[in-house]
Design a protein that fits this description.
heterodimer, A: 300 residues, mainly alpha, two-stranded antiparallel sheet, 2 strands, B: 255 residues, alpha/beta, Rossmann fold, 2 domains, 6-stranded mixed sheet, 10 strands
Chain lengths: 300, 255
């Protein structure tokens, strides 16, 4: 059973990561910095629970807020650049944060053992969950309550004016400005919200793996972050969830029996999925299909 | 006091003087025509007023207030709305959403509480959007994606979107481009109706049937400079204007 709870945890955390990129992608900005914001959530929350002895919930909120603020600061220079230049700039920024953790050393002695982030060695012994007697099931439930809250908030936002404005900016920035939208506020706001969500994901990640190091937060993770919402179709938050389940549940875990050949098939299946559903897994057609299953056809 | 006043407005793109020391005064309630050959600086003038491109020198004043160099959303909040030469709708939003995004700017000016405006929305705004849809004759298309509309409908939607922001000054950048004669007449009627309702309109246009018929006064630009200004009839006879349009009559200016 623990295997499935473990998988649930991974899917939950990656859903948060994907949703963090979803918000930014809606404004038409491609970001590869999400892994960086994710790592801020991971390191800062772990320092708060391990070094300062906080409970995980305030640690999660504070670290996510910090990640959101940093993301907002990144959003400002990102205003002046677009497209491929933005991709390159955000990669650079993500690497900047990763290398910061690579060099960051801050350890103290607690109850006879030395704990804290130790540069390239990483940050070990993040033991809030085991120390407080949380089982794998408890952790999985905790994660999914948070995922559900974030998804609900984003689903609501999507249907509100805020979501419509994000999409309007993604469609045409000039037209958006000309109907009174403050481009700076919207873009920076989207970055900050994305950073906050990535921070939550990172905080949870650090605590269930109990050991983090800078290599966890590289370009690969950032690529996954934008792959989920793009593969899911930017139509709604469920697309991202479906894409995470498809990649993490089916491709990564389901194909494990294939050994080293797995990665090859993994790439091929993503290409195939993109070809069959070019507008993402959740598009107009699949929505119609699912709706058709649940509604009676009144035309006959 | 003129509602819109440009004083020695200048824009250089590198060595090109797109707009060169332009003085213009638009009176409240009039339909003001801005014409000129291609590349004469008409669209740049609109972009300068709206804050889309930065001003090299000079001043833009709206209702006596200096709005030179204001960000586009601030210019809109002040009461100036515009349409684009090449239609710029939010293609993958519905017709209704296109208007809704614009309509909300009205509520922003009253600056009610933030969460209500952004996450809950007001019924009054929704009703106003429905009215705008009706007025634009697009009520039947409310759930269509804007990108799927016919060309004429897209033009109507763009105008409706500008009007949804409740402007006092409307800048129309070639609204008749690509329209057939029937549609031009419909637009003519619509502009007069707006004028009746108290709107001031600056009309940048190539289609002379529309400009000569509907405007109260006209200014002619050439190479970024104003070469003539006056009543439509006088402009048509102006030798400098005829010279600017390749030596021919004004009628040959259909692009």
């Amino acid at each position: 059973m623990d295997f499935f709870f473990g998988l649930l945890q991974i899917i939950g955390v990656h859903t948060l990561l994907g949703l963090s990129a979803y918000v930014v992608l809606q404004t038409g900005q491609v970001t590869l910095a999400q892994a960086g914001f994710f790592s801020i959530g991971a390191y800062v929350s772990a320092m708060l629970t391990v070094l300062a002895g906080w409970h995980i919930i305030p640690a999660l909120l504070v670290s996510a807020t910090l990640a959101g603020i940093v993301a907002g600061i990144v959003g400002f220079p990102a205003l002046r650049i677009k497209g491929l230049m933005l991709v390159v700039a955000t990669i650079a920024f993500g690497e900047f944060i990763r290398l910061f953790w690579f060099n960051f050393d801050y350890q103290i002695e607690k109850k006879g053992i030395v704990v804290g982030p130790q540069g390239g060695e990483g940050f070990k012994q993040i033991r809030f969950f085991p120390e407080n007697g949380w089982s794998t099931l408890d952790v999985a439930i905790f994660i999914w309550v948070i995922v559900a809250l974030v998804m609900l908030a984003l689903w609501w936002t999507d249907r509100s004016r805020a979501g419509t404005v994000l999409r309007a900016v993604g469609e045409d920035e000039l037209a958006a400005q000309s109907v009174g939208i403050n481009l700076t506020a919207v873009k920076v706001g989207a970055f900050a919200a994305g950073g906050f969500i990535a921070g939550i994901g990172g905080a949870i990640y650090a605590h269930y793996t109990t050991h983090i190091e800078h290599l966890n937060f590289g370009v690969m993770l950032a690529t996954f972050a934008i792959a989920y919402p793009i593969l899911g179709g930017l139509r709604n938050v469920f697309g991202t969830l479906v894409a995470v389940i498809f990649i993490q549940g089916f491709l990564v875990e389901g194909l494990r029996f294939m050994g080293d050949w797995r990665n090859l098939l993994f790439g091929a299946l993503i290409v195939l999925a993109m070809n069959i559903q070019p507008r993402g897994l959740i598009d107009e057609r699949s929505v119609k299909l699912v709706r058709g299953l649940f509604t009676r056809d009144t035309r006959n | 006091m003129p509602i819109l006043e440009l004083t020695t407005l200048t824009k250089h793109f590198g060595g090109v003087h797109a707009v060169d020391e332009l003085d213009l005064a638009v009176e409240e309630g009039e339909i003001f025509g801005l014409i000129g050959p291609n590349g004469s600086g008409k669209s740049t003038t609109v972009n300068l007023i709206c804050g889309v491109v930065s001003v090299t020198a000079g001043r833009v004043a709206f209702e006596g207030r200096d709005i030179t160099g204001s960000a586009p959303h601030r210019v809109l909040a002040a009461g100036v709305a515009r349409t684009f030469q090449n239609i710029r709708l939010f293609g993958h939003l519905t017709v209704w959403q296109n208007l809704w995004v614009a309509q909300n700017s009205v509520e922003d000016r009253r600056s009610e509480n933030f969460a209500k405006r952004w996450f809950f929305g007001s019924g009054a705004t929704r009703d106003a959007v429905d009215q705008q849809l009706e007025f634009a004759g697009l009520a039947g298309k409310r759930n269509e994606l804007a990108a799927n509309l016919a060309f004429g409908e897209q033009r109507r939607l763009e105008l409706a979107r500008a009007l949804a922001t409740k402007p006092r000054l409307l800048l129309l950048d070639e609204p008749a481009a690509g329209m057939n004669l029937e549609e031009v007449h419909a637009l003519d009627g619509r502009l007069r109706a707006l004028q009746q309702a108290g709107m001031t309109i600056v009309l940048v246009e190539h289609v002379m049937e529309l400009v000569m018929g509907v405007t109260d006064r006209i200014a002619v630009l050439n190479f970024g400079r104003k070469i003539a200004e006056g009543l439509p009839a006088a402009i048509q006879e102006d030798p400098a204007v005829q010279q600017a349009y390749l030596g021919g009559g004004v009628e040959t200016a259909h692009a």
